[in-house]
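To make this tangible, we now present a fold written out as tokens:
***
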Amino acid sequence: MREISAKKIEEAVREMCMDANYNLGEDVVECIKKAKDREDSPTGKAILEDILKNIEIGKNEKLAICQDTGFSVYFVELGEEVKIVDGHYMDAFTEGTRRGYKDGYLRKSIVDDPVISRINTKDNTPPIVYTDIVPGDKIKITMAPKGGGAENMSEVRMLTAAHGIEGVKKFVIERVEKSGGNPCPPVVVGVGIGGTFEKCAMLAKRALFRYPIGSHHPDKKFAEVEEELLEKVNNLGIGPMGLGGRTTALAVHIETFPCHIATMPAAVNINCHAARHKTRVI
């Protein structure tokens, strides 16, 4: 059994909150550069150039690349041979998030009561933490600050087997088209298929964490659907920031899970061009 201090998790989380908001991954940057080179619309090309300048400023000046510094979401692989000492597991994520957003001068966007009082918690907590128990003696933490504008453009739809893959494709295209410029395109489209009502939504969220961006589902059947959907999305003409062009999405990522014979749930979770995520292994 390997002992890991909760303080070590807390410090890693603190650093990730700032790093994710200041430094967009090179895989995303390269994807945006390639999109700029392909873009036919002068307006679209200019917007992509401005996005790249903004990314560079954030990196060099240690400033948030977007004013919406998001809801802190963590996917964690917790080794079954790990014992947390010197504190509690969830407290480490909460305190690390609190310190990261305070020390990094990041906007605090979380309200305590989602419906009535909606009072800001003033420290961007509580975070959302999804934990899988896996073999080994390490902790792998992947963090994403998930912006509210793109999150609002997401949807779960309870399809049936009769809808088939064509029904899923139609759903994805409809969702992106309906979203228009609201999620600050070019976007990354996460698609979850299978599981249950809540599982497919988590799959769609996890799809946004895929590294590198634009890599494909290991099953060739779904990899081909990803390519087809990306082409169709980019033919919608929404373009960068919704002002027209061929670059509406940078990637479409599909994640799948077995489901009940009577169901075929599907979800779309959209991320803006600031597809922020960082990973640490402790």
The chain has a mean pLDDT of 97. Residues 149-275 form one domain. Helices lie at 6-22, 26-38, 42-61, 89-103, 148-151, 164-179, 197-207, 220-234.
